[in-house]
Amino acid sequence: MPVIAVAHPLVRHKIGLLREADISTKKFRELTAEITRLLAYEASADFPLERTTLSCWSGPVEVEQVAGRKVTIVPILRAGLGMMDGVLDLMPNAKISVVGLARDHETLQPVHYFERFVGHLSERTAIIVDPMLATAGSLIATIDLLKARGCQDIRALVLVAAPEGIAALEARHPDVRCWTAAIDRHLDANGYIIPGLGDAGDKIFGTK
Ligand code: URA
After folding, report:
1. Which segments constitute the Phosphoribosyltransferase domain (predicted)?
2. What pTM, to 2 d.p., does this model score?
3. Is the peptide bond before 78 cis (omega within 30 degrees of 0)?
4. Per-domain residue ranges for the chain?
């Protein structure tokens, strides 16, 4: 199942707080970062480890370390930027690739206007971040771009997913896993997730 709802009590608690209509920009940002950290923790659970020996106070000791995994975080502009730091907190050496996709409010289709990928994508794990998996158009377009550049290990983190977006993602990219804090009911006629969070970009940037 490519879309994994993280059922941890802290995630369920925090996503509930995020739904408050009058939430402040500060609180929305803080909770988004906290939830993203928890999603990133889950999404990295299968990172391979290797053994190495280091000097401990008591002499040489064999320890485990993540086996040289190179990660690129891929925030989808603009709302995905609100999740970037949450992943960086756990993977501070990750490089950042950026994709600019805006939603055409009439067709609900993504319009591609910017991209800047780091090099050697075939050797990297890409972790795409975008708060709302609504139609999945932006996520699918970003995965298409990454795959066209040779990226073979692609994962995604979202705060809320709609069943329509999950179905579209599973149909187009069944190999890509996506971790979400919640699966909501449906999309409305404007492509907003119900009950959802409203416009996540506006809430993260304090616009509107
Ligand atoms: N983008 C948002 O910000 N919110 C939604 O509900 C859907 C897409």
Report:
1. 6-207
2. 0.95
3. yes
4. 3-47+69-205
**Annotated binding residue 131:** yes
What is d(CA 66, CA 70) in angstroms, rounded to the nearest whole number?
Answer: 10
| Choices 1.20.120.80, 3.40.50.720, 2.60.120.10, 3.40.50.2020: CATH for 3-47+69-205 | 3.40.50.2020
Tokens of 12: 């369920």
Q: Which residues line ligand 1 (CB under 6 A)?
A: 79, 132, 134, 191-193, 196, 199-201
Single-letter amino acid code for the residue at 169: L
Model confidence pLDDT, tens digit, residues 30-71: 999 999 999 999 999 999 999 999 999 999 999 999 997 799
Does 137 count as an annotated binding residue? yes
> For residue 196, which atom of ligand 1 is closest to its CA?
6
- Single out the residue of 136, 160, 204, 155 nearest to residue 15, CA to CA: 160
